[in-house]
């Protein structure tokens, strides 16, 4: 059998390997047979059997922190120096000049076609929401979500600076827009003098509308950036009981150990979900001209897991000033996170940080290899972790609803007409 082509119809895929934790077993990899029939996984073997020769299989992935509205603007808006400040100013200029509904829609759909080809089944995206961009981007998002229904489940979180959060300002309208869209309330948190009341107002507005929360937190290698602690305290003090996700948390990597442990204990008590974005963080953090970076900004995922904090990994930005690379490929994210955060030689269930844990954090349908589940699978020819992470797995098989999909990626030239388009 050509590895890249599976027969249509009911088939049993014999002799697969999967992370044991995904099927409720202990250890590293487990052998498994999967039968595809009528779009689902079946416990009744099919007449046609294919020996998969130890190929690794995963449920389709969940990417819980992306920026589909920013994606693929690098050609017209490259970061001038690779810094965080350079990214902020460049995106702001590009947004003002180009982010019409058609521009955002075209780039968003392009990014989703990439994610689809790579084997992602659910995505949460943050949308820059300074008015009037909130109306434009959330309108496009709703249309795109409808277009992609049944292929990729989509959620949207608004993205505003914490100093713009106010119950009597424009943010109230944005929060209403998020609620109407069935989205998630989001903000970027960093030290400001009135952080505490801003956080209280943020959670009050989320609570009034029954919204989950998702915040960008302490995205800097500055030990004085300690808003994560205040977020956890505010959740505990207010009794906010909807899911809360915090992303980045880079400054933990440079803070005093006692302070870090105190913060993590608060995060665990508050029940916050954490999403780490190591590829983007390592691209931006501690970048200085003609100087090798010393501080990498990767948050403390091992210490978090040791305290029972749920940790996920995600793509973050894609080909925009915050990250010049990426393609919404969760196998790439898993490979790089394993190398960067030393997930190898560690616990055997880190794969859940790319599948079931982000699905639970976001409320997406749970990825599963159990009989009766929808047959949404990613199969790689690699027979173990070393083979999986040694190559990009460009010949992987992606199965959605029991059928193998065409994995042809969209060509970047499709976006050429946007790269000089005036608003």
Automatic annotation (TrEMBL):
Please give the Gene Ontology molecular function terms for this protein. Answer: cytosine deaminase activity; isoguanine deaminase activity; metal ion binding
Pfam name, any one: Amidohydro_3
- Note the CDD domains from the entry: Bact_CD
Describe the location of the Amidohydrolase domain by residue ranges. 48-92, 197-396
UniProt-listed GO biological process terms: cytosine catabolic process
Q: Which InterPro entries match?
A: Amidohydro_3 (IPR013108), Metal-dep_hydrolase_composite (IPR011059), Metal_Hydrolase (IPR032466), Metallo-hydrolase_Enzymes (IPR052349)
Question: Do the record's keywords include Hydrolase?
Answer: yes
Question: Which terms are listed as keywords in the entry?
Answer: Hydrolase, Metal-binding
The protein's name is: Cytosine deaminase
The species this protein belongs to is Pseudooceanicola lipolyticus
């Amino acid at each position: 059998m050509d590895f890249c082509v599976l027969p249509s119809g009911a088939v049993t895929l014999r002799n697969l390997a999967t992370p044991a934790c995904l099927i409720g077993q202990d250890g590293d990899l487990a052998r498994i047979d999967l039968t595809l029939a009528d779009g689902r996984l079946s416990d009744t073997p099919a007449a046609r059997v294919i020996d998969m020769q130890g190929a690794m299989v995963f449920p389709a992935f969940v990417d819980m922190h992306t920026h589909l509205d920013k994606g693929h603007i690098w050609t017209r808006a490259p970061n001038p120096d690779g810094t965080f400040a350079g990214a902020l100013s460049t995106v702001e200029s590009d947004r003002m000049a180009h982010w019409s509904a058609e521009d955002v829609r075209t780039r968003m759909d392009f990014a989703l076609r990439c994610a689809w080809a790579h084997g992602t089944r659910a995505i949460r995206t943050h949308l820059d929401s300074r008015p009037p961009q909130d109306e434009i981007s959330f309108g496009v998002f709703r249309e795109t979500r409808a277009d992609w229904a049944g292929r990729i489940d989509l959620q949207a979180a608004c993205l505003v600076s914490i100093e713009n959060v106010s119950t009597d300002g424009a943010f109230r309208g944005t929060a209403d827009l998020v609620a109407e869209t069935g989205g998630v309330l989001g903000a970027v948190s960093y030290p400001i003098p009135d952080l505490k009341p801003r956080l209280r107002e943020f959670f009050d507005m989320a609570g009034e509308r029954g919204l989950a929360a998702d915040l960008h937190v302490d995205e800097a290698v500055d030990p004085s950036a300690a808003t994560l602690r205040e977020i956890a305290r505010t959740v505990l003090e207010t009794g906010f009981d909807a899911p809360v996700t915090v992303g980045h948390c880079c400054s933990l990597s440079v803070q005093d150990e006692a302070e870090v442990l105190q913060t993590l204990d608060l995060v665990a008590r508050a029940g916050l979900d954490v999403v780490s974005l190591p590829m983007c963080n390592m691209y931006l953090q501690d970048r200085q001209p003609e100087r090798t970076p010393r501080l990498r900004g990767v948050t403390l995922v091992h210490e978090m897991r040791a305290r029972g904090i749920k940790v996920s990994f995600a793509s973050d930005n894609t080909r925009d000033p915050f990250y010049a690379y990426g393609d919404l490929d969760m196998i790439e994210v898993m490979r790089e996170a394993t190398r960067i955060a030393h997930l190898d030689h560690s616990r055997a269930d880190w794969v859940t940080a790319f599948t079931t844990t982000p699905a639970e954090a976001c409320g997406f349908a749970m990825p599963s290899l159990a009989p009766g589940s929808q047959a949404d699978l990613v199969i790689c020819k690699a027979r173990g972790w070393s083979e999986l992470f040694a190559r990009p797995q460009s010949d992987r098989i992606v199965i959605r609803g029991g059928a193998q999909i065409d994995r042809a990626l969209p060509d970047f030239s499709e976006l050429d007409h946007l790269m000089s388009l005036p608003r």
